[in-house]
Amino acid sequence: MLLLAKIVVIIVALLHLYFLWLEMFAWTTKAKKVFRQFPENLFEPTKTLAANQGLYNGFLAAGLLWSLIIQDPIWQVNVALFFLGCVAIAGIYGALTASKKIFVVQGLPALLGIVLFLLYLFF
């Protein structure tokens, strides 16, 4: 169970590293293909805002990856749960305010990781 939870943490972290790259470095190129519902004429004016958002995604990825190298097992799980919780909340908020797809891509994997860690802790 723990190994599966850690694999989910890696997947969620990799997703957020992709979001970082997309929002910080590919906002006016590749992001146009990913965020098709966003008006094309707004990519350039929102480049700085997207980069800021990408930086936050990088912090989430860093926290998730950090959780994997913590030696103390209790702290490792607690840190992973904290960052997965942050990702899940961001996914839920994104689904409520922007697109339901955000919950599927971001929220569900984080919630899966949380469930797996809780199963590991309590069973």
SSE diagram, text form:
Blueprint (H helix, E strand, L loop, with lengths): L1 H24 L5 H4 L12 H23 L3 H25 L2 H23 L1
Helix pairs in contact: 1-3, 1-5, 3-4, 4-5
InterPro entries: DUF1304
Organism: Flagellimonas alvinocaridis
Protein name: DUF1304 domain-containing protein
Condensed summary:
By secondary structure, the chain is an all-alpha fold.
Describe this structure in words.
- The chain is elongated.
- It has one domain.
- It starts with a helix and ends with a helix.
- α3 runs antiparallel to α4.
- It is built from five helices and no strands.
- The longest helix has 25 residues.
- It is mainly α and 123 residues long.
Largest sheet: none
**Helical stretch tally:** 5
Give the DSSP E fraction (strand runs of 2 or more residues). Answer: under 5%
- Percentage of residues in helical conformation: over 70%
Give the overall shape, derived from the CA principal axes.
elongated
End-to-end separation: 10 Å
The figure for the number of domains is 1
The H/E string reads HHHHH
Report the radius of gyration as a whole number of Å.
15 Å
Average pLDDT score? 97
Structural class: mainly alpha
Number of strands: 0
Q: Which parts are unreliable, with pLDDT below 50 for 5 consecutive residues or more?
A: none
Keywords: Membrane, Transmembrane, Transmembrane helix
Organism: Flagellimonas alvinocaridis
Transmembrane segments: 6-28, 49-69, 75-96, 103-122
InterPro entries: DUF1304 (IPR009732)
